[in-house]
Structure formats: C-alpha cells, structure tokens
Amino acid sequence: MNEIKVNCLSCGHKVDLDEAYGDYEGQVKCWGCGATLEIKTAAGDLKSVRLANLPAGSPAGEMDPVTRRFALQK
C-alpha cells in the first residue's frame, strides 16, 4: 500500500499518512498550521477531507472540485 498525501485545506501544507491510515475515518493534525482535518480513507485511497472545526455544511469546510484536485493526492 502506498503512502497517502493530503494537502491541508487551511494552509496547503502536505500531510503524509502512512499505510496505517489505509482504512481510517477520523481526525489528523496538520504539522504546518495545526489545523485539524477530518478524513476518510478506504483501501488506501482518500475519500473525503474537511476542516474539523467548521460545520459539515459549511462551503469552506468541504472540498470543491478545484480543492479536491489538489487535496486528493496519492
């Protein structure tokens, strides 16, 4: 399984997740700015990411298509 790479939605810092996060739903912290990201992965692929401190319906907390292109890297 490959490492999963996520760009922080707050600062853009690249967060590298090892294979232990291959099937995971929960929070990870950005080492660049300290933001908490809510992520969901399955079979080693990133399925969703949002800023944890924003409401789920908040447009700033969800990935738009442009953000998704940069956040979902493997």
Describe this structure in words.
This protein has 74 residues and is mainly β. The chain has one domain (4-69): Rubrerythrin, domain 2 (Single Sheet). 9% of the residues lie in helices and 38% in strands. A hairpin with a 2-residue loop joins β4 (36-42) and β5 (45-51). The longest helix is centred in the last third of the chain and has 7 residues, at 65-71. The mean pLDDT is 79.
Q: Gist?
A:
The protein has one helix at residues 65-71, and strands spanning 4-7, 14-17, 24-29, 36-42, 45-51. With 74 residues, the chain is mainly β. The protein has one domain: Rubrerythrin, domain 2, CATH 2.20.28.160.
Question: What is the topology?
Answer:
Blueprint lengths: L3 E4 L6 E4 L6 E6 L6 E7 L2 E7 L13 H7 L3
Antiparallel strand pairs: 1-2, 3-4, 4-5
Gross morphology is globular
Mean pLDDT: 79
Radius of gyration (Å):
11 Å
The major pleated sheet works out as: 3 strands, antiparallel
Distance between the termini: 10 Å
Structural class: mainly beta
Number of domains: 1
Poorly predicted sequence stretches spanning 5 or more consecutive residues: none
CATH topology: Rubrerythrin, domain 2
**Number of H- or I-type helical stretches:** 1
Spatial order of strands in the largest sheet: 3-4-5
Count of distinct strands: 5
